[in-house]
Amino acid sequence: KYEEASVNIKRSIELSRSIGDKFQLANSLELLSFIYFEKSDYNRAHELCDQAYLIAKDIANDKLEMLCLRTLGVLHNELGNLSRAREYLERSSDFFRDVEETQKYNVTLYWRTVLYNGIGDYSKALSTAKQGLRISQQLGFKTGQAFLLSEIGDIYYSLGNFDKALDYNKRALAISDKYIGKWSREKCMNAIGYVYLERGNMEKALDYF
Q1: pLDDT in tens, 83-132
Q2: 65, 92, 186, 175 alpha-carbon torsion, rounded to 10°
Q3: How confident is the model at residue 185 (pLDDT cuts 50, 70, 90)?
Q4: Dihedral of the CA atoms 40, 43, 44, 45 (nearest 10)?
Q5: pTM, whole model, 2 decimals?
Q6: H or E element at residue 188
Q7: How many CB atoms neighbour CB 203 within 10 A?
Q8: What distance in Å separates the CA atoms of residue 114 and residue 51, rounded to the nearest whole number?
Q9: Which are the contacts of 166, defined by CB distance < 8 A and separation ≥ 6?
């Protein structure tokens, strides 16, 4: 699926360049960068998203600029540039909140949760995730709900609260099974398996791995 999407986006990039449509060019570059992110080619993703960000700044499109900044924050987190990741994610989050782009704000809260959880700031991660979960539920945004529930489960796992880790990941799994699909389901299944492993229940763990 990534190859087909890449081909279509690259065509859009070529067309946008040929007609001088900078807005569409920046949009397409940001989309292509996220495909490279999904393929774990973080350096190429960063290169493309940085191009998009500079174009968005050049045409003074604040919303597109902040969308690119969020993606750059996600990429810097993966590349280990944690202070820059935090700065970019928090700046873009504040922007989307202030302009009432609620779903973009919600998605940014998820990525902030991932960052805080990764650096061991579990209090900040938990409060950010629960705020994001409330918004996802208000929006009826099932993907956001599943991802944030699973992330909360992972935080509780790190804190050694395996009952809550299991509960949140099972809730995420139920939503993933009904509304999302394979990737989210596999993440939840693995998380649940590790909880049972920590409890010493190998047989149950193997049901989920």
Answers
A1: 999 999 999 999 999 999 999 999 999 999 999 999 999 999 999 999 99
A2: -110
A3: confident
A4: 70
A5: 0.91
A6: helix 182-198
A7: 7
A8: 25
A9: 153, 192, 195, 196
